[in-house]
Amino acid sequence: MDSSPIDEDVFEDLVQMAGDDGGVFVREVTEIFAHSAPEQARALSEAMAAGDPAKSRFFAHKLKGGALMVGALRVVAGCKLIEEHGAGASVEAEVEAAIGWLRDHGYL
User: Fold this and answer.
1) Band of the pLDDT at 44, cuts 50, 70, 90?
2) In angstroms, how far apart are the furthest CA atoms of the chain?
3) 5: which residues sit within 8 A by CB, 6+ positions away?
4) Could you give the CA distance from residue 87 to residue 50 in angstroms, rounded to a whole number?
5) Do the beta carbons of residue 98 and residue 70 sit within 8 Å?
6) pTM of the predicted model, to two decimals?
7) Does residue 6 surpass a pLDDT of 80?
8) Which among 13, 49, 59, 78 has the fewest CB atoms less than 10 Å away?
9) Does position 86 have pLDDT exceeding 90, yes or no?
10) Cβ(96)–Cβ(38) under 8 Å?
11) Which of 69, 66, 65, 62 is nearest to 13 (CA)?
12) Class of 8-104 per CATH?
């Protein structure tokens, strides 16, 4: 997998889907991800630490959807592992890396 926290091809698909007036849409999507993903990642980590597979799967699924929209494929991959196996590594660092990329590239 690419070393970038955001898959630029997936992100470009989001920009293209938004169309000519998509700047506002793209900013809204990235801001929603930046606001909600850290909280969801913390809740996921807490559920995993508590040994609660149902909550772990719930938060992994929720986080995966937003991550997929912005192309944070390493977050998506981590969430899939948790959903499928009920265990995996924390995705908090990957979420922060993805938000950093969005900020560095002017989308936040």
Assistant:
1) very high
2) 46
3) 72, 74, 75, 94, 97, 98, 100, 101
4) 12
5) yes
6) 0.86
7) yes
8) 49
9) no
10) yes
11) 69
12) mainly alpha
> Which two three-digit tokens encode residue 1?
């997998």
Taking each helix axis from N to C end, the angle separating 53-70 and 73-85, rounded to the nearest 10 degrees, works out to: 160
Residue 93 pLDDT exceeds 90: no
Q: Smallest Cα–Cα separation from 75: which of 53, 60, 85, 55?
A: 60
Q: Token digits for 63?
A: 């986080």
Rounded Cα gap, residues 68 and 72, in angstroms:
6
Distance CA 60, CA 69 (A): 15
- Alpha-carbon span 33 to 9, nearest angstrom: 18
Contact predicate 32/66, CB 8 Å = yes
pLDDT of residue 12: 93
Assign 3-class secondary structure to the chain.
CCCCCCCHHHHHHHHHHHCCCCHHHHHHHHHHHHHHHHHHHHHHHHHHHCCCHHHHHHHHHHHHHHHHHHCCHHHHHHHHHHHHHCCCCCCHHHHHHHHHHHHHCCCC
